[in-house]
Structures are given as structure tokens and as C-alpha cells.
Amino acid sequence: MLRIAVLGVGRIGRMHAANIALHPRAALAGVFDVNDAAATEIATALGTVKFASAEEAVASEAVDALLIASSTATHADFIEMGVAAGKPVLCEKPIDLSLERVETCAAKIAGSPVPVMLGFVRRFDTGHRAVKAAIEAGRIGDLHQLAITSRDPGLAPAAYIEVSGGIFRDMTIHDFDLARYFLGEEIATVSATGSRLVDPALMERCDDYDTVTITMATAGGKQCVITNSRRAVYGYDQRVEAFGSGGMIATDNKPLDNTRFSGPGATGQAPALLDFFIERYDDAFAAVIGEFVGAAEAGRAPAVGFEDGRQALILAEAALLSVREGRTVSISDIG
Amino acid sequence: MLRIAVLGVGRIGRMHAANIALHPRAALAGVFDVNDAAATEIATALGTVKFASAEEAVASEAVDALLIASSTATHADFIEMGVAAGKPVLCEKPIDLSLERVETCAAKIAGSPVPVMLGFVRRFDTGHRAVKAAIEAGRIGDLHQLAITSRDPGLAPAAYIEVSGGIFRDMTIHDFDLARYFLGEEIATVSATGSRLVDPALMERCDDYDTVTITMATAGGKQCVITNSRRAVYGYDQRVEAFGSGGMIATDNKPLDNTRFSGPGATGQAPALLDFFIERYDDAFAAVIGEFVGAAEAGRAPAVGFEDGRQALILAEAALLSVREGRTVSISDIG
Amino acid sequence: MLRIAVLGVGRIGRMHAANIALHPRAALAGVFDVNDAAATEIATALGTVKFASAEEAVASEAVDALLIASSTATHADFIEMGVAAGKPVLCEKPIDLSLERVETCAAKIAGSPVPVMLGFVRRFDTGHRAVKAAIEAGRIGDLHQLAITSRDPGLAPAAYIEVSGGIFRDMTIHDFDLARYFLGEEIATVSATGSRLVDPALMERCDDYDTVTITMATAGGKQCVITNSRRAVYGYDQRVEAFGSGGMIATDNKPLDNTRFSGPGATGQAPALLDFFIERYDDAFAAVIGEFVGAAEAGRAPAVGFEDGRQALILAEAALLSVREGRTVSISDIG
Amino acid sequence: MLRIAVLGVGRIGRMHAANIALHPRAALAGVFDVNDAAATEIATALGTVKFASAEEAVASEAVDALLIASSTATHADFIEMGVAAGKPVLCEKPIDLSLERVETCAAKIAGSPVPVMLGFVRRFDTGHRAVKAAIEAGRIGDLHQLAITSRDPGLAPAAYIEVSGGIFRDMTIHDFDLARYFLGEEIATVSATGSRLVDPALMERCDDYDTVTITMATAGGKQCVITNSRRAVYGYDQRVEAFGSGGMIATDNKPLDNTRFSGPGATGQAPALLDFFIERYDDAFAAVIGEFVGAAEAGRAPAVGFEDGRQALILAEAALLSVREGRTVSISDIG
After folding, report:
1. Does domain A123-283+312-333 have CATH number 3.30.360.10?
2. How far is A135 from chain B (nearest CA, A)?
3. What's the gap in Å between the CA of B235 and the closest CA on chain A?
4. Integer Cα distance of C210 and C40 in angstroms
5. CA distance C37 to C47
6. What is the pLDDT of residues A11-48, one digit of tens each?
7. How far is CA D125 from CA D120, D169, D235, in A?
8. D101 min Cα distance to partner chain A (Å)
9. Is the N or C terminus of chain D more exposed, i.e. has fewer CB atoms within 10 Å?
10. Which tens digits make up the pLDDT trace of A311-329?
11. CB under 8 Å to D51, separation ≥6 — which residues?
12. Does the domain spanning C127-284+312-333 belong to CATH 3.40.50.2000?
């Protein structure tokens, strides 16, 4: 039984805690949150203990591993604490908004055998895994062009956007990781375009973008386009299309159910899409816990780790630089 | 150049005339209609001659073949006239509402080498032909179950319904023919259910049904279900599904275009369906003319002939008997 | 906490036991099976007790309710025992292969307030529920025609087929229940066709059919067609299509994932279907337990009960009679 | 009757000639080709006259208008000749491979009221028109992101590629025009990535690319991504997706027919795609003739004209520059 403490019990932390409780070889070892009242409430609701601090959780003999779902600014500190204590860590993305902080964290944990996993949940989606499996099985031949469409169902609150680190570090970061996952070779160049169309005033104020398109290429010439919007009125749009010398495979969105309606003037209508990421990726979130438990038990590297988190952040930096300077940015110039 | 006279220039006759004009090896030789004013108008519009009578058209040296699109009651007479004159005939369905009349007509033309083709247009639809080809190529193994869904977009006018001969002879007749086309062996038993749901008062008055389901089986046990309704608010519903020991192949409906729309609450909406049969089966109607021209030129039997029209009518009689008597009817008991 | 004993721990019983363990307000109270070795193994694996007999399970003070997943011949006895003991019962279909036995059971439990639920799992499928909700919300207007396609991915072993009670009582029984669920009014007439196409020799020996089509109508004229096959090579085919005066809504099959592949000669291929019922209806099986727990807690009638099981069996009897006698059977003549 | 001479009777010219012959208000006035034997053969086959030179065709009193489907290098000359003679011109894309030549041609015909139409056939596709209509009707709100996927079914012969002017001027030119058509405002910036993945040796030799991705933005921030490949093994891939503040509308590919096949291991397979552009866009090519005839009759500007051809070429130049210099190119810097 891997006893996991959850640091940060906002919406994502709570969801992870529930998945830990459901996993046959994992147990919830307690929770911590800077909002003490919230931590108390959640601990009571889940029938677990509340830790007074992250340090207490890390030090506890009843804790084998850590799940970090606290605010981004704390991620790197908590990773370092967990690794120092020899306790496997599963950390939500991003590692940090600052690449410098990520680098110092990387330096600190370098050489440690303690498993550190990044919560890039989309790699664990059934459809995405099927695309990856098809690529690896050679079903589409050599991958030539990859298209990732990722649109949120609605703009997050201004308070969230303001501290998010910007769309590339906050939202596209998932797609950067997916791109690396599917491409199977490192990305060499990034070119991005950013627009302010959903909420121009907010974006102007935050010096951010709500609508972006990013084109990337590997040294071998494989191309990837990521299309993001902060608001799709038809719901959480999550699609991947991989085109190669031997064919094309794509994953489609997930509607609420598998019905189709035909009425006057419109036929074959599917219902609304699953909304939002917790519903859309529920199987994947459970699989994340499964992978973490497996890696922690075996003391092996998880399927997606710290370096993946660092590389995704480098791509985010490159994209931002590309928009700002109106040029194609070489990854070798970053970090 | 096969010079074809069109007898009856209502909506269907005019459509056929246009297709004759477009065919590279056919020419419109003139038109006849009991409504003389209509005939005059059409002849002028199409730049062709008007015949004063069907007899005149048949006898004309400028006429090589006949297309019969006049009222049902005249079909058998005109077929007999054409065959007697040695002129190939393409006749719209049904041959006649009375099986007796069909039998006497059959007796009269028996032994003649003159091609007589029945206008069962659906056999010439691209999708239906692809299903047939898949069956013949063994793609679905042995055919076990066939489902034909056929629903009109709206109830025909009462004046039409009253003289239509009833839903089985007027509407299902197409599906009976399709069933024979796909099954590839003669049907042995018919069991039907009829309801009055679209316009109960009209159906009551006409002793007819607007909603029917017919189950048929061949001697070998292959099954076919036909589902008909006189009114589908989402449009002209025309689907076939063939299930066999090796797989399943189905044809879907044809929307106005190949777009899909996603908006709040509904995703993947296709537009309305092509409406009505002249639009839905436009390619097929052109192919009907092509087959007729080919058969007439070669003096060979057309792909679908008089006997197919007779067999479809027998199935209609059997279905009606089944509804009336609440029993499974053997085809060997009919006709 | 509702403590539920599981009687019969074959494949279905075990699956139910796992779902009980996962339900937050239910607990597995023990298992019983006539195969004592199997019962011991399962009890150990699930960390629960083994009962020496069904009687012991029913009598145990540690048991609040019963889940009956034993062989069909024991269902009625166990239902009677549970009701006599005042313990809510969730019974797998069918109640019994003999309508007479069902009637005596009905008489014995008549008037008891103890909840008896039938395990018609398909009513709890997300897609089927969405169809039902659409009908009830008036989205398709008045229901006119219902089509249920239900095909197993492969023929069950001969040993199973021989004691199954025949395709109507064993397989179609689910579809009969679904038909009643969607139609919302009792069925008046049944007409069925049976063929032996998948394994003619076995079917001949068992006097059974592997390929059947059943047409039913309510007194009001609503029509329903059920299409069954014991073997679909493309997998577990489970579809429902409801057509009404205002539109049509259908549920489609569930492939393994939401990918589509395009290669030379074929485009838009979805993967194989979920196979078999435990995978296809996994959410629905969990929802069955949820409904049972809710009904048992409240002492209320469950959403699907004993009478639904009896009515489905009556339809099976009627279908068999229709095939044997080649006629449309009135339900009022049965039972 | 608009009497149209066809200059250049290769595959495209012959197809246009056939469509002219089918149009009710157009007639084929003769053909010219530098390959005199080919011209003779086609003239005989189509029952029309052969002109000894383009000059003769333009000067002929029996010619009202010109359709230019000759080699690209002749387009600008023939346009100038037609306009000088006061005869409406329909010219295949591109106007010329050199922007300078296009500019001198523009200067020569400036101010003339003679209709000059560019053969950007995709604007006339039913699906694309439906997307445009949906945008104009406000169905997707404000357009934010447009994605055009355009892949050829196979690499053209090396001899063609070598003189094609490169992928941007030869192939993407259609997509540049479509982008302008849908965006409804001029494009401000272009950023492109080019790879050599289909036939690296040939592309190296021609200093060309076979796999490109182009991102464009309007001054208002609307984004468009074009994805091109010279070879898709699953066929001619032609899709458009328009995303806006109120929804998304997309056109899908066109398979050979509307069937779906399910067999062991794969379900819902559509057949191969229509291949190639003459089949895929056959309705659109006919509509091009219709629009040209209408514009010529009325002496009005056609729906797509010379300036559209010039703008598309400017975008091609910008894309090439972007790939070469690794930067986002402003359209205002070109031309």
C-alpha cells in the first residue's frame, strides 16, 4: 500500500485524493492546504488526517509519497523537499512559471533515484494512447504532421488568468508535452502567433493572449501545429490528428453520451461535450495515479517525469519569444 | 442515338426528359400527356414535338423507344403497345395496382424479345450499388439480416394518397424491390404491421396505413425488415443495412452538404437531408436512363425488368394480406 | 451501509460483487455458490465470508439484502426466500424459464413491500437513458417506430445454449424489456421470425434459433422491431433508434476508443467494439447497484421490478408462439 | 449563348470544355493548343473547330469569351490579349509564377470593364460555400481561427514539380485564396515552415518543399493555419474548419460513396476518398463555368477575379520568404 499525502486540496487535489482512495494499492495518507479551514473540511470529508504544514506531511512516517496540487509557486519547493526525504513525488504541471527556478530545482534533484512524475494527464487518455500506439506500431508510417486542437470551454476567471503565467505556460503546456509525446523526437524550432479575441481588455491588461497558434518542427522536419482558444462555446475541444507516410489517425471529442438526434433542419447531432477536464479526462487521471503507484513501488522512472516538465516549459518560453519578436525561435537558444 | 418519347410529363416525366436530353446517346423524341396544355408547354420548353396520343407516339417513325411516366392506370396498356410495336419500354413503378392486370400484361408480352425495364431507381443509387457489390464480393460473408429504412419527408396530398393503391403498392414497392435486389434469392414469407399515426383520419378513410413494418424471410432463412413512415420531419430517410456472417455494410442518408456544426449544447450537426427523391436520387435517375439506353441498343434484358415489377407487387399484396389477417403469409399463396 | 450477500459467483456475480464493494453506501456481506470451491476462492479473493447455503445467507443477521446471480432455475426460490425474510432482492434476468413458475412466485410475493429489482442492466446505460430522456422531454414528439439491434459478438458455448431456454428467453429478453421501457405503453401484439444461420446443427438440435426478428405493436399502434443475432464478427452490436413525429434519436455502438484511422482504400475507421457486455455496460452495471441500494434504503419500488421481469417473459413466450404458428400473437392470449 | 474558346486542352482544359458543352447558356467555340496534334484530336472528339493560334481564337468573330487552361507561362499574355479584344476571360491559377509579371499584367488591364475571372474552383464547392454562408449568417459568431487541410493523394511527376514554381505557388495558392475567402479581411502576416519528407531528393534538387504548414493572421488577429502535403496515402484530403466566438463549422472529405463497413477489428469504415480534384470538385468546376457565363453576360465583375489571383500570389511569396528567413513576414513588405 503506497500511502500518499496530498499537498493542496483545491479542485484538482480533491479529485486526485478520490482517485488515490479508489486505487487498490494506494491509500490517502493525509492532506495539507494553506487554507487551513479547507484542509480541515476535506480531511474530515475524506476521513483522513490534516497536516499542519507541507514539512509535516513530508516528514511523517505514515507518508510514503507526495502528490503536489498546491499553487504553482510552491511546486519546486515541495519537489525538492520530497526528493530530499526520499519520497516519490507526483507534481501537477507546471513545475514553475520561471525557467530559472526549474533549472535550480533540476540541479538540486539531479542524480537522485527518487521517482518524480509530472501530472501531464493527457498522455494517459485512452484515445491519445491509442494514437501513440498506432504511431509506434507503424500504422501511419513515418509521422509527418501533427495537429493538436485544444480549446477550453470558457475563459477562466480574471484572477486566475492574471497569475497563470500566460496562456503558453498555463494552457499550451499540456499541448507542448503531448507534441513531444507523439513526435518522439525533440523539437528544434517554434513559431507562434497570439491574438486577443475572447477578452481583449483582460488580455491587454495581462499582456497575454487568449487565441494562439503554434507551429513547431523537429530537426528531422516533422511538423506540429497547436491551436488553442480560451473559449469554445461548444465545449472542451480536445483533438489530436497524426498524419504520416502510411495514413492518418485522429482522436475525436467526447460528447456526454453516444446519441445522435435528427430533427427539422439538422441531422446527426451529438450532444454537448464532456465539460471540463476532470470529466473529460477522468479515466486518464485514474491512470496517472496508477502509473505513479507503479513507479513508486518499483523505484523506477515514471512514464513522464521532471525533464518532460522542463522541456514543456522551454517550449512555452520559445513560443512567447516567437510572438514577441515575430520570428521562428530555435530551442537551442532557450534555457 | 436512341430517340425516346416520354408518355406523361408530370414531375417525374419532366425529370426523365431532362436526363434523356443530357445522355450522349439518347435524344428526346417528343412528349405526350392527357393534359394537352401541359404537354404543349413542356414540348415548347424542351424544344421537342407534342404527340396527340400515346398511339401516335408509339407509331411514330421518329420514336425508337418509350418512357412511361403517365398515371399508373395507363402503364400496362402502354407497355403492351410498346412491346407490340417492337419498341423498348422503360416504365415507372408500379406496373399496375391490380395483380390481375399485371398478369394479363405479362401473358401478352410473354416471349417478346423487346426490352421492358422497370424504373426501380434505387437499384442505381451509388450507395446501394456499393452495398450490393460488397455482398457479391463476399465482404460480409453470407447475408443474414437486411434492414431497409425508408421514410418520406412529408405526407403526400390526400388526393394522391386516395388513388395511390395504398402504402405497400405505392411506397413500400421500392423497398420490396430493393429487398429482392440485395437478398439475391426469392422471398418466401411476409409478415406486416400497419399503423395510422401520421394522419389517422385520412388513413381510416382510405383504409390505408402511414406507418408500417414488414418482415420477410427467404426459404433459406435470410431475414429482411422494412420500416416505412409517410412523414419524417428530419427529411427523406433512405438507409440500408446488410448484416452477414463476415461483417456489416450500411448506406447512410445524404445531407445537403458535408458540413458539421458545433454550437452551445449540440455538436457535430449535419445539415438537413436532400429532399426529395429527385434530388436524393438524381445520379441514380441518370443511371436509369443509361441502363435503358444500353439495353435498348443491345436488345438485351435490362438490369431490372417486368418480372421484378410483378414480384414487387406480389410482395405488396402479401404484406397487405398479412396486416389484414394477422398472419405470416407465404408468397406461394399469392398470384 | 447496505450489506449485500451475493448468491452465485460466476462471471456476473463476481462483477456485481466488485461493484458492491465500490459503492460508497453498500458492502459485500458474503457469497454463496453451489460450487463450494469456487465460493471459497472468491470469498478469499474479495475478503468476505462464504455462506454454506443460500438459506444461511438469507438468515444471516449480517445480511441486509440479496443479489441473485445464481443459475436461472434457482432465481424464483431465492426471490421468495428473500422476500419472506424481508430482505430486498436484486435478481438477474430471467426470473425463470417457465412462466408458470413466475406466476406462482408472483402470487407468493404479492402484497409484500419488500423491494424486488430485476437486473435489466440496459435501462441504466448512459446512451439508452439519454434516448428515454429525449422521448420523455418530447424531443421526438410522439414515438412511432422503435428499432432495437442487439447482436452478440459470438455464439455462446453449446452447453450454455442447450439450457438457456432459447434465444427469446435468454437473449431477446433484454430487448423486450428495453422495448417496454422506451414505448411507455404495454405491447399488444408480437410477430416473430426465427432462422438458423449461425450454427444450424446446434439450433436444430436445441429446437432454437440464432437469428431472429421480432415486430411488436402497442394498442395505440406504436411499432417496435428487434433484430438479434447470436454472432456479429465486428463485435457486440447494441443500438437503439427511436423515431417519432418530431424527430429521431439513436444510440450508437461503443468502440474501444474514440480514434479514426484513414489508410489506403479505407477512411474513418473506428476500432473494434467493446466486447462484451461487462465492458460495454460497465457504467450501467454500477448504476444498477446504485438504484438497488437507493430502493432498499428507502423501502421503495425499484425502477425496474418483478412485474417487468414477468412482462418480458410473456413477450418471449409470445414470440416463440408466433414463430411456431406463423401468426401475429396477441399478448392477451398469453399468461 | 456565350461562345467560349478554350486555350490549352490538357486534362483541365478538356474538363472545362466538357462543362461548357453541358452549360445551357454556353457553347464551345473552338480549341487551341501548342500541341497541334492534341488540339486536332480534341477538336474532332468534341465536334468543334481548332484554332491555329491563340491570336486566331481571340480574334475570331465566333468567339465571345476565353477560357485559359494553357501552361502557366502563357496566362498573363492571354489575359492581356483577351481584355484588349474586349472578350471576358476565365483563367486557371496561377496568373504567373512571377509577381512582377502579374503586376505588369495588372497595369495593362487596369481600368478595363472586361470581366476577368480566376479559376479558384474551391470557392465553388458546396461544402466550402456552406461554411462561408454559415460565417456570413453569423452562425459561428466572429471568426477566430481557420484551419485548412489540403493534401494531394500522390506526388506529381518530377517533370511537373520542377516547373511548378514550388509548392506555395502551385498547391498552397488554392488554400491562400480559400483563406482570404473565409477570413473576409486581408491577411497581414505570414509565417511558414517547410519540410522535405515525401521525396527529399527531388525537393532538394528543386529547392522546394513537399510538406508545409503556414500560419497567417489578419490585422484584427484572426488566425489561419494551412497544412499541406504532396502525398496522403488515404487520398485527396480537403477539409476546412472555421472556429468562432459562437461555434465551429467544418467540411469533411468526400468518400466514393456513403457506405460504412464493420468487420473483425474495425468498424464504421468509409471507402476511399474521391480522387482527384476533377472528381472531388466536379460540381464546383461546373459552377465555375456558371459564374463565368453569368459575369460575361452581365458584364459584371466575377465572384473571384484578377486581384484575388494577385493577392494569393503575394501570400505565396510571403510564405516562401518566411521559410527562407525564419521569420514572420508582413504582407505590406511584399509586392
Report:
1. yes
2. 27
3. 7
4. 36
5. 15
6. 999 999 999 998 999 999 999 999 999 999 999 998 99
7. 10, 21, 18
8. 30
9. N
10. 999 999 999 999 999 999 9
11. D5, D30, D31, D32, D39, D57, D60
12. no
The identity of residue A60, as a single letter, is S
Contact B229 C243 (CB under 8 A): yes
Nearest by CB to A213, from D198, D215, D233: name it. Answer: D215
Superfamily the domain A2-114 falls into: NAD(P)-binding Rossmann-like Domain (3.40.50.720)
> Looking at residue D61, what is its pLDDT?
97
d(CA B96, CA B110) in angstroms, rounded, equals 17
Considering just the CA atoms, what is the radius of gyration of chain B in Å? 20
Mean pLDDT value of segment A151-168: 96
Amino acid, res. A304: V
Does the pTM exceed 0.90? yes
Cα–Cα distance measured from residue B172 to residue B178, given in angstroms and rounded to the nearest whole number: 10
Asked if the model's pLDDT at residue D335 lies above 80, the reply is no
Same fold, D2-114 and D123-280+312-333: no
Residue with cell 439480416: B145
Q: Which of D172, D187, D181, D174 is nearest to D130 (CA)?
A: D181
Taking chain C (335 residues) in runs of 10, the rounded mean pLDDT of each run is 97 96 94 96 94 97 98 97 98 96 97 97 98 98 98 96 96 98 96 98 98 98 98 98 98 97 97 94 97 98 97 98 97 85
- Could you tell me where the DSSP H helices lie in chain A? 11-22, 36-46, 54-59, 72-84, 99-109, 126-136, 158-162, 167, 173-183, 200-206, 277-280, 282-298, 306-325
The owner of cell 467544418 is D250
Domain ranges of chain A: 2-114, 123-283+312-333
What ipTM goes with this model? Answer: 0.96
CATH of D123-280+312-333, one of 3.40.50.300, 2.60.40.790, 2.40.50.140, 3.30.360.10: 3.30.360.10
**At a CB cut-off of 8 Å and minimum separation 6, what does B110 contact?**
none
List of chain B residues whose C-beta atoms are within 8 Å of the C-beta of residue C232:
243, 248
A307 in contact with C, Cβ within 8 Å: no
Region B29-37 average pLDDT: 96
Rounded to a whole number of angstroms, the distance between the first and last alpha carbons of chain A is 39
The CATH number of B123-281+312-333 is 3.30.360.10
C-beta atoms of C126 and A264 within 8 A: no
* Pick from C247, C250, C259: CB nearest A249: C259
